[in-house]
Each structure stands twice: as structure tokens, then as C-alpha cells.
């Protein structure tokens, strides 16, 4: 039976079989690879309307925080929008910190608040105080607020500015790092 196949039929079938083979072996028929997202480009979790409390190893509250949105990445970094934090102070109202943006570097517990950052609290004598700075680090492990950027201070009886700040909320100390200028308004007796 196969001996009787006409030669013209072989020439007709050969290009047809080659076309079918090329069709199924071409890259166009292979499944498209799934793009792998870069850890910094795509968050693992995206949360909206977030509230959290961080406690230390003894269960003591280190801070409370809220953000309109929080994105967490595979490398354990985070990005925040409209970040607000309350940092406790012994025997006084907490420092209230707010900024339009914030971030936590990969594999760290510190949070960088990016400006303008506003800090509302009080002087040791209880007088209300507002500080502003373009950037502020919050380090809960060291109970430290710090920046190397310029800081503005405003309150009823004094105002000032400094280049850099370190404030230990556990020890209740504030250190202005340089170029400190303060103006005092004497209180009326």
C-alpha cells in the first residue's frame, strides 16, 4: 500500500508536517514566564488604616502608631503614608509625632519619619512645645529620637533652632547637636 503513494503527495505532506512541527516548537507556543517582582518594587503586604503597638521584651509599651497605609516587603523593610506615632514619657503626656511619609530599613526596627515631621510635646517644666524637622529617626530599642537635620522649636516662652537632635524618651533628655539658637520671652510674674 505504501509503495503506491504518489510522489506528489509526499512533496505536499512534507511542508505540511514541517509547518506543524515549527508551530508546536516555536517560542510563541511556550507559556510566558511569570515576571519576578523585585523586593523593593512590589510589597508583600499592603495595608490600609493601620494601628499598632510595639512592646519590648518585658511587655512595656515602646510606642503606638497609626498610618493611612503601610507596605511591607520581603526584605522586612516597610513604607508608610501619613504616619503618626505616640512615644511614652514617664509621668507626662506622650510625644506625638506625625509625618506624611515614613520607612523602616530592611532588617531594622528603626523608623525614619520623612518631612516635614512635627513633634508635639512639652518642655520639662510642662510648657507645650512643637518641634519640626525634615527627617527624624525613631529607635525603639534605644528609646531614641534623632536627626542630623535642622530642628525648629516653638513654645509660648521660647523658640529656637538647632542642627541635629538626640532625645532619649526613657531618660527624659534632649541633646541639641550644633548651631543652637534660642530666644526666650520672660514670663510675667
Provide structural commentary.
This protein is mainly β. It has one domain (45-184): lipopolysaccharide transport protein A fold. The chain contains 1 helix and 10 strands; from the N terminus they run αββββββββββ. Strands 1, 2, 3, 4, 5, 6, 7, 8, 9 and 10 form a 10-stranded antiparallel sheet that branches. It is elongated, with a radius of gyration of 31 Å. The termini are far apart.
Order of helices and strands: HEEEEEEEEEE
Shape annotation? elongated
Uncertain spans, ≥5 residues at pLDDT below 50?
29-40
Alpha-carbon distance between the two ends:
124 Å
Sheet having the most strands: 10 strands, antiparallel
CATH superfamily: Lipopolysaccharide (LPS) transport protein A like domain
Number of strands: 10
Count helical runs: 1
- Which architecture per CATH? Sandwich
Q: Give the CATH class.
A: Mainly Beta
Q: What's the structural domain tally?
A: 1
Mean pLDDT across every amino acid position: 82
User: DSSP strand (E) fraction?
Assistant: over 45%
CATH topology: lipopolysaccharide transport protein A fold
Radius of gyration over all CA atoms, rounded: 31 Å
InterPro entries: LipoPS_assembly_LptC-rel, LPS_export_LptC, LptC
GO cellular component, one term: outer membrane-bounded periplasmic space
Keywords: Cell inner membrane, Cell membrane, Membrane, Transmembrane, Transmembrane helix
Region (Disordered): 92-111
Amino acid at each position: 500500500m505504501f509503495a503506491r503513494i504518489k510522489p506528489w503527495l509526499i512533496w505536499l505532506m512534507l511542508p505540511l508536517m514541517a509547518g506543524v512541527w515549527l508551530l508546536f516548537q516555536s517560542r510563541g507556543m511556550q507559556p510566558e514566564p511569570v515576571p519576578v517582582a523585585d523586593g523593593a518594587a512590589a510589597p508583600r503586604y499592603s495595608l490600609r488604616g493601620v494601628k499598632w503597638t510595639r512592646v519590648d521584651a518585658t511587655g512595656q509599651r515602646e510606642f503606638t502608631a497609626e498610618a493611612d497605609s503601610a507596605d511591607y516587603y520581603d526584605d522586612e523593610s516597610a513604607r508608610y503614608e501619613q504616619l503618626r506615632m505616640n512615644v511614652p514619657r514617664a509621668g507626662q503626656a506622650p510625644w506625638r509625632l506625625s509625618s506624611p511619609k515614613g520607612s523602616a530599613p530592611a532588617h531594622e526596627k528603626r523608623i525614619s519619619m520623612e518631612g516635614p515631621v512635627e513633634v508635639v510635646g512639652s518642655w520639662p517644666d510642662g510648657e507645650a512645645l512643637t518641634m519640626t524637622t525634615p527627617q527624624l529617626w525613631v529607635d525603639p530599642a534605644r528609646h531614641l529620637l534623632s536627626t542630623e537635620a535642622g530642628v525648629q522649636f516653638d513654645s509660648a516662652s521660647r523658640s529656637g533652632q538647632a542642627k541635629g537632635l538626640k532625645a532619649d524618651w526613657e531618660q527624659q533628655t534632649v541633646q541639641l547637636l550644633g548651631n543652637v539658637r534660642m530666644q526666650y520671652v520672660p514670663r510675667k510674674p
